[in-house]
Design brief:
By secondary structure, the chain is an alpha+beta fold. It has seven helices and 13 strands. The chain folds into two domains: 86 residues; 110 residues, no CATH class. The strands form two sheets. Strands 1, 2, 3, 4, 5, 12 and 13 form a seven-stranded antiparallel beta sheet that branches. The N and C termini lie far apart (131 Å).
Length: 273
């Protein structure tokens, strides 16, 4: 016997099936996904190429500076290329490059050298700049080692105040210690670092250079600190321009004699007249 419920199930099974069409393919969405993947892939390739070319360019420029400045192979030289290293490598010209030599030897002291290079371009297998400028920067301790006589470096020290170098030393008034310091203004003349007395401080008393010489009768010529030949610290292709005090450091500024950059004479150390 067929019950009503069972009859309904049988009739439902006999109903004709209806084919459901699949949704249409959205080619626009597929193209967008593929394009996005291609852009991401290209971006990754470009980023990797930029990293590789930048590292190689920085290594090459650092090596050029070590050769030009006669620095040891292991000397630490930092290079920062402005803009895309990849595109500039392709054109064979870097518009601006910042170079830092972290321990440039200058005789009795090693100092920091900051260099700005403009138009660093390829000439054959070498690289040459259109223009180069920079500065040596010295801390008080570095200036003390470079400018003070060896026998006085334990008692004397160099600091900075405003536009002056301050040479300080301990002194005694009877059994009472008193600080004595001399303020001197640095300048560059014919490749030499020279200084002029600015003032003398004894304890809390400050005397101008003129008052000091008038009161003590000291001969200014005999009190003049000896000059230092800065030109002897550089190859001849580097020309010393100016000296200043900035951010509690002594800055010796220079530029590049481009024609002398690749000559044997230009690679020799300079001299003062």
């Amino acid at each position: 016997m067929i019950t009503p419920d069972h009859q309904t199930d049988v009739l439902r099974d006999l109903e004709p099936s209806v084919d459901v069409e699949p949704p249409p393919v959205r080619w626009g969405a597929i193209v967008a996904v593929v394009a996005a993947a291609a852009v991401a892939l290209v971006g990754t390739v470009v980023a990797v190429a930029e990293t590789v070319f930048r590292a190689e360019a920085e290594r090459t420029i650092a090596a050029e500076f070590r050769t030009g400045l006669a620095l040891p192979e292991g000397e630490r030289v930092g290079v920062d290329i402005a803009g895309s290293a990849l595109l500039q490598e392709i054109t064979g010209r870097f518009d601006r490059v910042a170079v830092t030599v972290y321990s440039f030897p200058t005789g009795r002291a090693n100092v920091d050298m900051e260099v700005a290079v403009e138009g660093f371009h390829r000439v054959g297998r070498d690289w040459e700049p259109d223009r180069l400028s920079g500065a040596l920067t010295l801390s008080g301790a570095q200036a003390s080692a470079l400018f003070l006589p060896t026998e006085g470096q334990g008692a004397l020290r160099v600091g900075f105040s405003g536009s002056d170098m301050i040479v300080a030393a301990p002194a005694w008034s009877g059994l009472t210690p008193q600080g004595v310091s001399v303020a001197i203004t640095p300048r560059v003349q014919d490749g030499r670092l020279t200084t002029n007395f600015s003032s003398v401080t004894v304890g809390d008393d400050v005397l101008s250079a003129a008052d000091f010489f008038a009161q003590t009768g000291a001969d200014p010529a005999l009190m003049q600190p000896p000059s230092v030949c800065l030109a002897e610290m550089f190859p001849r292709f580097l020309r010393t321009l100016d000296v200043s005090i900035r951010d509690q450091r002594l800055r010796v500024e220079f530029d590049l004699d481009v024609p002398a950059f690749r000559t044997n004479a230009g690679q020799e150390l300079g001299s003062c007249t």
